[in-house]
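Support case: user asked for a sample of complex input and structure output to validate their parser. Sending the pair below.
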Amino acid sequence: MQLKLSGVGKSYGGLPVLSDISLDIASGEILCLVGPSGCGKSTLLRMIGGLELPDEGEILQVGAPPEGSLNPLTFIFQDFALLPWRSVAGNVSLALESHRAISRAERAAIIADVLSRTKLGDFANAWPKQLSGGMKQRVAIARALAVRPAVFLMDEPLSALDAQTRDILMDDLIELWSRERFTAVYVTHNLQEAVRLGHRIAILSRRPGKIRRIIGIDTPIGARTHQDPELLAIQEELWGLMREEAEAADKELTHG
Amino acid sequence: MADDDAQTRPVPYRGGGFSARPMRSVGVLTFAALVAVWELGSRYGYISNLVLPAPSEVIEAFRDLWVSGTLWEHLGASLYRLVTGWSLGTIAGIAVGFAIGLFRPVRASAGPLVAAIFPIPKIALLPLFIIWFGIGEASKVGLILFGTFFPTVIATYGGVDNVDRTLVRMGQSFGLSRWEIARKILFPGALPAILSGMRITAAIAIILIVAAELIAAQRGIGAYIQMAGSLFATDQLIAGVLVLSALGLTVSALIGALELWLLRWRA
């Protein structure tokens, strides 16, 4: 399944947030959306996931989602969005309960499977409150895996984590992608994450957000390292493009 | 640095204090000391028995109340009114509060109504309730129902309003229906607020039932206190007040236990 955005625009109360966004996201591709804060990248992701409606343009899913996909467009949120009153297994279960076709036994099997894939097998009965930030995000990833998405929509999934945890989870994501080859739209303001994980990186400008440039990276995701000079050069280039915007965004007053 | 020896001393400590750690024994001691002073004051005539009976006399009156079975008669009547009125008021309040939290038209219509009726001291409505429902149980149960309904409504929709919207969005992103979001996300999320509302309404219910029984009842703890007062039987009067204190503590302990169990994920 592919995604096709053409001429997408959005404004809040007359204030344009995004304008004329056109993008194609191919199957198995990770597209990173980067931009200064307030450029509308999270809004764009919510529109792609059907949680908000665009004011202009259209967002299309091309082709049928793969067989057995319960929730083709699945989010991973920055603040994890776990229900604090449900255990780790219960949080994963939430995403499956509404599907009548899945029996109780199948559900338990899926939960056990995704928890072991995210190295959470021993924590099925823990409360979210007992987990570290990294573990919480792993639960959210397990929950997303459980519904077998066609596209992962990740909204700054590592931003709420400390630097070490972020690196570890980044490696996990890379490993996961190498196995599953999922499609993803990955929103971040962290350029290092973008060059580690993105096949293509779309840079948005400040409000109203427009696509300034799309940069492709050829190095296979599995072969990328921290010190790769090519990646560092791209990161530097991205920063050059973003710096002015970020500075201007920093000085802007928030509206509402 | 050896020259500075005269100036060398430990860094002055200025932390500590402001701790909320319980000191259980002190509480018990304070209570015991107060009762002892009261008892001695009564025995040696510093406190007139007519004004305030000695603790020993109060205990004696309480024992009578217990042994003769009058306690159970009065407590039973009060408890029946409390439990019925409070349960009905709480159930109705949660239902309406939830509807206000979920549906904007309901909020627009019921919200101002609740806000207008909430501040009325409900005991002022007792005469009206007696006219409507008669002097029997219905008027008292109705009063408690009415008195607990509005705070529950407010606590419930406040709780629903405060549920983190990212959780709702998460539910939507996994394709949960509106009903599932209400049941699995909004209700458990509002539960802490509903339970603290219950704490408040339980206290309100006790106040209302005693006030109603003081005014118009043959049986009930309030009626018993009223009777003792008109006979100047201060020992019985205080025994009745102690029963109320015990009732309040029991109710609060029950709700505390309920909270501990239902909100165990917060521990």
